[in-house]
Write a structure and sequence with these properties.
19 helices; Rossmann fold; 438 residues; 2 domains
């Protein structure tokens, strides 16, 4: 029976660092490799992680101190001793919507010359169908005598819940082309499957497509409920009641039915675009996916109009914005709704004063012309309207009486429906929620 000992993770970004650390937590010896020397030095010498993810920093330090988790920039020195090498590098969106595979290809080329003994190369990055074959061909061309297999093992990690999602996943998906690779991947995930986690083994192409299909479906589900917001406004329905009534149907389920200002983050925008592009490349048009992409952008733009409608002209007005990240419990600003909404408000003459518990360093790089507050209280002070943009727990527990006292004009636009009209009315605040009676 195969018993893998040493796993190597190429890339210490969101997927690589969470996955590598979690594998160490499961008892493997893990080496995380990255080309960024400063990032590796911070991880290795100070336990400083490059992302905000609850529970991860403590887990990194614990496993590093135990000697199970190591960090290096030298890939060549660890390849030969590795039983499995995970490629977990970025696949950013290219101009045409496709996934840019330059970092995947570079990793494969660097692995190839140093392979010794049987090794499984695992595509952990989100990649289009056919990437497994591409990696296999690159390695085979460089090192024709290497004994290896390339497998697909997509990640399904939610930002803010990533550690839990790895340790207690809904399922593990593996794409293999032979029994030897299947046995290695089953051995790697044995500690999870022994606890009842389903291991879904399929071929590489199916595994690669599962990742994109799952994210596109969830993006469509989010967009569907968000598109109902405007109809609820018109007919007097409550979007929260509608979404709950839908979600109680076991065929639909409640998750990803929470209305909000559009989806964002590192996965849904990039993966829906990449899936649509892959389909077009193969002569297929995924109309529902393409409409989801278009509608999501329109929903973000509609949120700007809602804020303007709540206060009239925003020119010369101070707008306090609570939340910048695309969702709570992360500092990820990729495709965040704030990037669409706030520059538009500023261009119309508003003074935007924003606060986010974690995302402000990244937001300042992307929107340097905004004003950034050091706290919720500072953001609210003297503002003409408060806009709740991200569903942080801190904002859910706001003292509404204090909010009323802080604002120059007692108006709240709640783009996450964190409160009820009754609560706002009791505090003397004019309330503008999404798709529900104020």
């Amino acid at each position: 029976m195969i018993k893998p000992r040493h796993l190597t993770m190429i890339g210490t970004g969101y997927v690589g660092l969470v996955s590598g650390t979690a594998f160490a937590e499961l008892g493997f010896k893990v080496t995380c490799v990255d080309v960024d020397q400063a990032k590796i030095d911070n991880l290795k010498n100070h336990g400083i992680i490059p992302i905000y993810e609850p529970g991860l920093e403590e887990m990194v330090r614990r496993n590093a101190q135990a000697g199970r988790l190591n960090f290096t920039t030298n890939l060549a020195e660890v390849v030969a001793d590795s039983d499995a090498i995970f490629i977990a590098v970025g696949t950013p969106q290219d101009e045409d919507g496709s996934a840019d595979l330059q970092y995947v290809e570079a990793a494969a080329s660097q692995i190839a010359p140093h392979l010794q003994g049987y090794t499984v190369i695992v595509n952990k990055s989100t990649v289009p169908v056919g990437t497994g074959k591409l990696v296999e061909d690159l390695i085979r061309k460089t090192n024709p005598n290497a004994d290896f297999d390339v497998t697909s093992n997509p990640e399904f990690l939610r930002e803010g819940e990533a550690v839990r999602d790895f340790i207690k996943p809904d399922r593990v998906v593996v794409g293999v082309e032979n029994d030897r690779a299947r046995e290695m991947m089953a051995a790697i995930y044995k500690s999870l499957t022994d606890q009842g986690v389903p291991l879904h083994v399929t071929n590489r192409a199916s595994s690669e497509l599962i990742k994109y299909a799952a994210n596109a479906f969830l993006a469509t589900k989010i967009t569907f409920v968000n598109e109902l917001i405007s109809l609820c406004d018109k007919v007097g329905a409550d979007i929260l009641s509608v979404s709950r009534g839908m979600g109680l149907d076991s065929r639909i389920a409640p998750r990803f039915l929470q209305p909000g200002p559009g989806y964002g983050g590192s996965c849904f925008p990039k993966d829906t675009n990449a899936l649509a592009k892959t389909a077009r490349d193969h002569g297929v048009q995924l109309r529902l996916v393409e409409e989801t992409i278009t509608t999501n952008q329109l929903i973000k733009e509609n949120m700007t109009d809602r804020i303007i409608k709540a206060v009239g002209s925003v020119e010369g007005k101070t707008i306090a914005v609570l939340g910048l990240a695309f969702k709570a419990n992360t500092d990820d600003m990729r495709d965040a709704s704030s990037l669409t909404i706030l520059p538009k408000l500023a261009s119309l003459g508003a003074k935007v004063v924003a606060f986010d518990p974690a995302a402000m360093p990244r937001a300042k790089q992307l929107m340097p012309n905004l004003t950034y507050a050091g706290s919720t209280e500072e953001a609210l002070k003297g503002a003409d309207v408060a806009v709740i943009l991200t569903e942080w727990a801190d904002f859910r527990s706001l003292d509404l009486t204090t909010v009323k006292q802080s604002l120059a004009n007692p108006v709240v636009v709640d783009l996450r429906n964190l409160f009820t009209g009754a609560e706002m009315k009791a505090a003397g605040l004019e309330y503008h929620p999404l798709g529900r009676p104020a």
